[in-house]
């Protein structure tokens, strides 16, 4: 077995903070417009798809924690090297870094697209991406504890958006939800599969695990974080299905934001403009965590300092944001990334657990055998 | 620490750079408050825009500009060429459609407004009797800002529930749903006034018929619920039970307000289809003429019965009319779709079913109280 990661207590974080880490890493750009993608597959049963996807996250997380517990205090990168050996393990690590890179980039690009579509059509992509990147670089250089702080405040500060869902209820009709389960199970599952892009983020647990102080207490905050995300997705989905008619929902690109476009206060005429701007606080932890996860992997592969890595990483993201310009490109990227992410986040951890178990049994037998000899 | 300072400086400078984004200063833009669409010549769109120019020194000016072009954005460009100020649509409150255009297809006008993030989903839509251009360009004696006037007119009527609510969101909702057709208020010029004159019924994207403004009460009571509202009706001789009258008369006029209503729709028979429509109304009677002894429990009950009968009759008439023109503005189809499994309902299929649909109207009317003077 590889050596567990040695950390000084001041780098460690308490287990209850995992609630904010998991939830903060999950909720991001996906929630702005996931409704129509699910609705196309599952029609009025889309909320069941959301529920199924939510349950799947709990199962996957269960497997993740089991795998991590076998190794005591190590992250996914260490586990992969241990299981698959130096070469293949490092190859897998490299792939995981690329995955984190694309995830971080897709969050950034999607958010910029929203700003350009809703607020400033003429503002340059380079300008927005540079600004956002500098903010996450700033957060990253503070270390994990700062990033966790960012996600903590991101959640606390954006809680007020939730009650806004009550406004559209005025125009909702429950009839849109019926008949329940009219669509066959396959299309509902397909809808759940389409949730991938929106619901991922909790895989950060694989990387953050060694940094938790009291590891035996992590189950509760992790699952509560997942539960909160699922409930929020479910609430948004239910409101959207009842507020829009089917045909309109399919044609609305950012249904959550359009939901808000009805709300107006005496002091704010168009509430969704506030929401779009405020969303930056919601996506910050997303990007920070992926950046940080990529860095954890990179330190194992190369001897690279954090500052050097973050500038390099940001530079590549910046270049990519110049390449991907049109809506069609972004949509293609999202679809492909969603498909890949399904295997990385939902399938791989479930496969990894039995492999890790086998490996452990095998090595412990071998050790025993050696001792006897 | 030094590095943090560097990042902070870069961040701050970028922060201030946001000030260089294109600005829209109030006295440099013309605010479009209302847009009217008409059918132009040769597939073109004729647009009449009411634009308010805010001027800090003088009174603000209202311009009504009519242009003709291939797209609505083309019209905006052309209107821009005639004004000293940049035209913005963020403050748009009302979209009007010419009658001729509404009878063709309104889809383009819905989509063009839905697509634009600047346009709020809560703007009102209405059909103009005749063409919108002469309706808007007419110099009304007492109306300064025709755009604002029409907006306030529609808004207060909708708030008081005299008129059905037709915001862009609701219209798009109905347009894109299977089993519900959209309806809009009709607006027209009457001498020096602007007046809501009726309700336009649509089949798909086409206006097929209209109902007089008085019927909007029945449309609204079947479509959704009442919370305030005011209504008057005339009970004819054959509706009136003779017992309650103190003197013989031909008809009773009656007015009630503070109406609370809810509707319940149940599908009785999916094949035909047949619906039960139960409507509960509770209200306050304001006027009864000639007098009826409202202190007597029996005669109040009789009066309630008579009103129930009258309202059921009127509702049945309105529904029958909408069936005749195949415009399901009440959403019977949505109910049908939500109950019948695997109905694979399409709009055409439903319109066919709707024509032969049977509705049993049941009205329950409760007089809560009368005024302060009996």
Automatic annotation (TrEMBL), chain A:
Q: Does the keyword Transmembrane helix apply?
A: yes
- Membrane topology summary: Multi-pass membrane protein
List the Pfam families hit by this protein, alphabetically: Spore_permease
Q: Which InterPro entries match?
A: Spore_GerAB (IPR004761)
Using the UniProt record, give the first listed, main subcellular location.
membrane
Question: Mind listing the UniProt keywords for this protein, alphabetically?
Answer: Germination, Membrane, Transmembrane, Transmembrane helix, Transport
Query: Which residue ranges run through the membrane?
Result: 12-34, 46-67, 87-108, 117-140, 146-167, 188-212, 224-244, 249-267, 273-293, 305-324, 336-358
The record's family statement is: Belongs to the amino acid-polyamine-organocation (APC) superfamily. Spore germination protein (SGP) (TC 2.A.3.9) family.
- What name does this protein carry? Spore gernimation protein
TrEMBL record, chain B:
Where does the Spore germination protein N-terminal domain start and stop, copy by copy?
Answer: 24-188
Q: Which domain of life is it from?
A: Bacteria
Q: Which UniProt keywords apply?
A: Germination, Lipoprotein, Membrane, Palmitate, Signal
Membrane topology per record:
Lipid-anchor
* Residue ranges occupied by any Spore germination GerAC-like C-terminal domain in the UniProt entry: 197-371
Q: Where is the protein localized?
A: Membrane
- UniProt entry tagged with the keyword Signal: yes
Q: Does the keyword Lipoprotein apply?
A: yes
Quote any Pfam family the record assigns: Spore_GerAC
Please state which protein family the record places this protein in.
Answer: Belongs to the GerABKC lipoprotein family.
Q: What protein name is recorded for this chain?
A: Spore gernimation protein
**In which organism is this protein found?**
Lysinibacillus boronitolerans JCM 21713 = 10a = NBRC 103108
